[in-house]
Design brief:
Layout (H helix, E strand, L loop, with lengths): L27 H15 L10 E2 L2 H7 L2 E6 L9 H10 L3 H5 L2 E4 L3 H13 L3 E6 L4 H9 L3 E5 L3 H15 L2 E2 L6 H17 L5 E5 L4 H13 L4 E7 L4 H8 L21 H10 L2 E5 L1 H15 L5 H11 L9 E6 L17
Parallel strand pairs: 2-10, 3-4, 3-6, 4-5, 7-8, 7-10, 8-9
Antiparallel strand pairs: 1-2
Helix pairs in contact: 1-8, 1-9, 3-5, 3-8, 5-6, 8-9, 9-11, 12-13
Length: 347
């Protein structure tokens, strides 16, 4: 069933390196170097995995494409976030590390930062919205982090982080607005392309944009002709709106079953997207649930809703995948098995 294993840009010219950063000097070479150098850093201290690549003939048949799934749901902490957090913590100065780290997260980045901090023997404080899934709160606490709950708004998350920084001097390791985090996330795509070098497309889900930015930098360095396509929920589509308009367009109250994709893109990740990403597409909630269930059924692996968004885009013809060799990064597997979206509430 499964085993280990460009279309030209439309309406947009090829981006130049200076397009990558808005209002600052060109930093693309430095960012590419960070992705490359992160290979030697992200794995040893935290014992990160080189995750497997799986294929599925049933899903190939349904899509008309040849799909290669990079299974970050098998990564330490159950998501790709372990890569970026481990890279960022490993690069702290001894003086900064001694004061600990802090972040805000709905779950996966929080657990990843807690794990990386524990591995380096430093303190971690994680600001989590009170609505974050219980399974993700429990995973974060298991790594010894201090959890502070807040209201489920970006303003509340940022304010709580600011208080911790003022009180402790901790370093903020932002979930995506950080070059070391972006570089660490990019190692997933770099591994995928090292194993399957002739991909024509890589597609990833889009939330705050850290994974997309790292993926785009790694992919375009490997092969400038490869297409990088982001997919996001219709209810959290700031990336698609901004990609079309050329301006950041944050959504004030994003909503989706894909809770890991509710972050708003930063200036940093938005600029990298505009320079190196070929398309951003959106999908409905129903299509996310359908794609998630197909992966459970046919690949026999556990994924969270955010993971299913790229496959949902392919299945709903949000972009034409037929005949393509497509790499899909399955971002994580931290889902509450008692609350799967296709299980009807008995009440």
């Amino acid at each position: 069933m499964w085993k280990k294993e460009g279309e030209e840009r439309k309406g947009r010219g090829q981006a130049t390196l200076s397009d990558v950063a808005v209002g600052e000097p060109d930093r693309t070479p430095a960012r590419l170097a960070r992705v490359d150098n992160s290979f030697a850093i992200v794995a040893p201290r935290c014992a990160l995995h080189r995750t497997p690549i799986l294929t599925c003939r049933t899903l190939d048949s349904l899509t008309g494409a040849t799909l290669f799934f990079k299974c970050e749901n098998f990564q330490k902490t159950g998501s790709f976030k372990a890569r970026g957090a481990s890279n960022a913590v490993a690069r702290l100065s001894p003086e900064a590390a001694a004061k600990g780290v802090v972040t805000h997260s709905s779950g996966n980045h929080g657990a990843a930062l807690a794990m990386a901090a524990q591995a380096h023997g430093i303190a971690a404080t994680i600001i989590m919205p009170r609505t974050a899934p219980a399974v993700k709160k429990a995973a974060t606490a298991a790594y010894g982090a201090t959890i502070i709950e807040c209201e489920p708004t970006f303003a509340a998350r940022e304010a709580a982080c600011a208080r911790v920084i003022a009180d402790t001097g901790a370093t903020l390791v932002h979930p995506f607005d950080n070059d070391d985090v972006i570089a660490g996330q990019g190692t997933a795509a770099a591994e995928l392309l090292a194993d399957i070098p002739d991909l024509t497309v890589i597609t990833v889900p889009l939330g705050g944009g850290g994974l997309l930015a790292g993926t785009a930098l790694a992919a375009k360095a490997h092969n400038p002709a490869i297409r990088v396509i982001a997919a996001e929920p219709e209810g959290a589509a700031d990336g698609a709106r901004g990609f079309a308009s050329g301006l950041r367009e944050p959504m004030p109250n994003p909503k989706s079953i894909a809770d890991g994709l509710l972050g708003q893109m930063s200036e940093r990740t938005f600029a990298i997207m505009r320079a190196h990403v070929d398309a951003v597409v959106t999908v409905s909630e129903a299509s996310i649930i359908h794609a998630m269930r197909l992966i459970f059924m046919h690949m026999k692996i556990v994924i969270e809703p955010s993971c299913a968004v790229p496959l949902a885009a392919i299945l709903s013809n949000a972009w034409e995948a037929r005949g393509q060799r497509v790499g899909i990064i399955l971002t994580g597997g931290n889902v509450d098995l008692d609350r799967l979206p296709w299980i009807k509430d008995p009440a």
